[in-house]
Amino acid sequence: MPLARPFLKWAGGKTQLLQQLARFYPPKGSVGRYIEPFLGSGAVFFHFKAMVEPRRVLLWDNNRELIDSFKAVQDNVGQVIKLLSRYREQHSKDFFLAMREKRPKSPAAIAARLIYLNKTCFNGLYRVNSRGIFNVPFGKHRNPGLFNEACLRQAAAQLAGAKIEAADFRLLELEAKAGDFIYFDPPYHPRSKTSYFTAYTRELFGRAEQEKLAALYRVLDRKGCLLMLSNSDTPLIRELYGDFDIREVSARRMINSRADRRGAIRELLVLNRKLVEASRGPA
Ligand SMILES: C[S@@+](CC[C@H](N)C(=O)[O-])C[C@H]1O[C@@H](n2cnc3c(N)ncnc32)[C@H](O)[C@@H]1O
């Protein structure tokens, strides 16, 4: 069975880091609940689900459109595919611009619009303006690979039974229980003022949020959760997680508004002791 893959291209996507992350996954069948509070395209969720087979899954993101789209793929993938097939036939610059203005109400139409715009816009970059409106220009792809039906159906199968909610990561303090495995992939702390793109949603993720997240990480560590967190390699992140096990990973960053900034970048993976022990990861 092929592994389900993300059906969206998302800034900060983790597809190319999966092998490096998987070294620290707990053994197959040992995880009661997988939680991912910054879902994005769900690259890590899809991989972890296939490799470790957690019994339950909780997926959060504070981007409501993204969460509605995941729910539509979960509940009504046939309708999403039907709409996408229609959009593929109608694809043109004018159709793209008209879709960009639409605000559909039904979850399947929300999902099909997001997938369509994501695959046909410039650079596949999800970005909203100050009013929360998707404003990326047309991408001029000749034959955009809008969707792969088998991949979408596989994603729907992997999402079956998952709880998918629009929520802020801070609520996790109440939700998480001992033994949960939690993967955090927050918007990264910028390496410089201009280097990172953080406008996934209207609220920016600044230093105060990074500090709140680190405080939450500590609380969840004390609760007995198994924790893995990705972030940039910056003095602030090394300081905030100084008491934990910090590993370096290397990532090629594909989405960046400055073409000259694409390339291998060192990023950090923060693990807590409980996860290192469970994964029997290399010291
Ligand atoms: C780095 S991306 C995740 C990328 C993902 N791991 C992937 O492979 O595609 C960060 C995500 O965090 C979400 N986010 C930003 N602030 C948040 C908050 N306060 N609570 C929950 N999610 C948030 C954004 O909407 C975005 O989808």
Cα gyration radius (Å): 19 Å
The fraction of residues assigned to DSSP E strands is 15-25%
- H-E order: HEHEHHHHEHEHEHEEH
* Helix amount: 25-40%
CATH topology of the largest domain: Rossmann fold
State the CATH superfamily name of the largest domain: Vaccinia Virus protein VP39
Strand neighbour order, sheet with most strands: 3-2-1-4-5-7-6
Small-molecule binders here are: S-adenosylmethionine
Number of helices: 10
Low-confidence residue ranges: none
Q: Give the CA-based shape.
A: globular
- Main CATH class of the largest domain: Alpha Beta
Counting helices, strands and paired strands, the structural category is: alpha/beta
Total individual domains: 2
Distance between the termini: 33 Å
Task: Profile the largest sheet.
Answer: 7 strands, mixed
- Please name the CATH architecture of the largest domain: 3-Layer(aba) Sandwich
The strand count comes to 7
Mean pLDDT: 89
Descriptive account of the structure:
The chain has 283 residues and is α/β, with parallel strands linked by helices. It has helices at 18-22, 43-52, 64-90, 93-101, 107-120, 149-159, 172-175, 207-223, 235-240, 273-279; strands at 33-36, 56-61, 163-166, 181-184, 226-232, 245-253, 263-271. The protein has 2 domains: 15-62 and 167-279, Rossmann fold (3-Layer(aba) Sandwich); 67-155, Adenine-specific Methyltransferase, domain 2 (Orthogonal Bundle). 39% of the residues lie in helices and 15% in strands. The longest helix has 27 residues, at 64-90. The protein is globular. The mean pLDDT is 89. Residues 10, 12-14, 37-38, 40-41, 43-44, 60-63, 168-169, 185-187, 200-201, 205 line the site of S-adenosylmethionine.
